[in-house]
Amino acid sequence: MADPQVEIGRSAPAEEAGQTSTYATASQWQLIRRKFRRHRLAVVSVWVLVLLYGMALFAQFLSPHDPFEFNDKLVGAPPMRVRIVEDNKLQRPFVYGYKRTVDFATMRRYYEVDPETKFVIRFFAKGFSYELWNLFPTDRHLLAAEDGGYLHLLGTDRLGRDMVARILYGARASLSIGLVGVLISFVLGLVIGGISGLVGGVVDDVIQRLIEIIRSFPTIPLWMALAAIVPKEWPQLWVYFGITIIVSLIGWTSLARVVRGKFLSLRDDDYVVAARLSGGGNAWIIRKHLLPAFASHVIASLTLAIPAMILAETALSFLGLGLRQPFISWGVLLQEAQNVRSVALMPWVFTPVLFIIVTVLAFNFVGDGMRDAADPYA
Questions:
Q1: Are 190 and 378 in contact, with CB atoms under 8 Å apart?
Q2: Could you tell me if 336 and 362 lie in one domain?
Q3: CA–CA separation, 120 vs 123, rounded Å?
Q4: What is the pTM of this model?
Q5: Partners of 121 in the β-ladder
Q6: Is residue 72 within 8 Å of 98, Cβ to Cβ?
Q7: 108-142: per-residue pLDDT in tens?
Q8: Axis-axis angle for helices 163-199, 201-216 (nearest 10)
Q9: Domain range holding 335?
Q10: Looking at the structure, do residues 364 and 323 belong to the same domain, yes or no?
Q11: Which stretches of the chain are assigned E, i.e. beta strand?
Q12: Distance (Å, rounded) from C-alpha 351 to C-alpha 241?
């Protein structure tokens, strides 16, 4: 009978050889995926982004109240606490209402929990009517207080509007503007950077000088100058696309330089020269040979560019030069909270800041993971 230790010793090299063979035959994308999975923080960040975009996609269903609904009896009300125990007995989730008192000397409102007013939280309950994705009319919501009640888990703003609903609706604009802006920047950066790196000569010099001029301007003043061009009488949907284009016109320069550098390093490789000698045009060479060679690096750059787009929209809206009421975005919500009174009396109106921070960090961690995974043999 063979010694088990000998068998184990014999199987280890075989197992290592199998792993080596698997890596040797794996495609580039398989290697990238394997290394990305080992970046735990990046994987967690992917699920965080899936959750955030899911919230934006189903904002109407998740909102317990209409984001435009005013409640003059709950102006600046603090967040409500969800409870499941009453009189030492387990209950269905519920919240207590508020009693409001006003100090007429300072005109300040005070809210106290009213144990006599109880609102049971219903799941898939009826609420305000809406059309999900403008296709399916319904009035069902994930959470809602029983008939005649209210549920303000993150409090209300200075006009009595529910903060949860406004944050969810604001996510639709703030998160989508990053994707749309990066898509436009991707096309501009890929085309302009590709022409600069592949053609070279005078064309390359002109494009690089243009990029240097654009990058030499301070970012925020340049945003402000371009945003001031947008007519104030435009509908908010037009303003949304205008802000997206403004942010994209500035954001393409970094990607263009990355693409140019890659093209310069790859255009004289043997397989590219062979493709050119065989009669391949520039567009065909770029599509078949150059782009696949550094696609992972481009994806990493795009991932890191999305948070910059989100912050740009937030900054412009906060300064009053971007999206405006009644349109809702995280920047618009922060614009409403830019006074000392809000800081002192209603600190919960700054909750959108937390969502912005989490979103930006998640994209940065995913970008770091993609950048590390772009070199699977490192």
A1: no
A2: yes
A3: 10
A4: 0.80
A5: 145
A6: no
A7: 888 888 888 888 998 888 888 888 888 889 988 99
A8: 150
A9: 166-373
A10: yes
A11: 83-86, 89-103, 108-132, 136-145
A12: 26
